[in-house]
Amino acid sequence: MQPCASHPFANIRRKGQGNQSHRFDSLPDAARRTSGSKMKMCGTPAWNSIEAPMYEITVEAGFSSGHYLRNYHGKCENPHGHNYKVRVTLAGRELDASGLLLDFKLLKQVLKPTIDRIDHQMLNDLEPFTELNPSAENIAKFFYNETNRQLAGMTDGRVRVKDCTIWETDTTTAKYSE
Ligand SMILES: [Zn+2]
Q: Is this model's pTM higher than 0.90 or not?
C-alpha cells in the first residue's frame, strides 16, 4: 500500500453552455415547448441529448485502497494499493431556485458515502468487488451507479451523472458513461 494521503475534495468546476442556455431559459413556457420541434419529432430526447441546453458541474476526490486483479497475469495479480482519484461530472437542464445545478456542499456529500466505504479498504473484500474485478473501469462504473443513486433522492431526477473518471496513477485513467 502506498502511504496514506489526505484526500481533500478539490477542483470543483461549473460549466454552462453559455448564452444558448440562458436564452432558452428566458423563453416563456409556451415558446420553450414549441422551440424544440426537432426534439418533439424524435419523441422524448435522451436526458443527455446534445440538442438540449445542459449545465455541468464537476467534483474530484481522492481515496487510497488496496486491490488485486483476478484472471490476470502480471504485477497487478498481487495485492497492492493505489492513491486513486475520482472525477464525477453531473449534468442537468434545469437549475434550482438559487440558480444552481447542485450546491457544491451537496455535491461533496453525494460522493462522501461512496468514498468512506472504500477508502483504506481492500476493494476485493467489498461488494461488488468480491465478484467483479476491481479494475479502474469497474471502479468508475461503481462510482457512476452509486452517485446516481445518491442524486436520485436528492434532486428528484433533475440532475444525473454524466460520466465518472478514475485515475489509478497520475497517467492512467478509465472513464465510464451511459
Ligand atoms: Zn493496481
A: no
Superfamily of domain 10-16+54-177: 6-pyruvoyl tetrahydropterin synthase/QueD (3.30.479.10)
Tell the residue number behind the cell numbers 456542499, with chain if given.
105
Using an 8 Å Cβ cutoff, are 56 and 91 in contact? Answer: yes
Encode pLDDT of 38-64 as tens digits. 444 445 555 555 566 799 999 999 999
Examine the pLDDT at 23 and tell me if it is beyond 90: no
| Ligand 1 mean position, distance from CA 102 (Å) | 33
Residue 80 Cα to ligand 1 middle (Å): 6
Peptide bond into 128 cis (omega under 30): yes
Hey, where are the domains in the chain? 10-16+54-177, 18-46
Report CA(72)–ligand 1 centroid distance (Å): 11
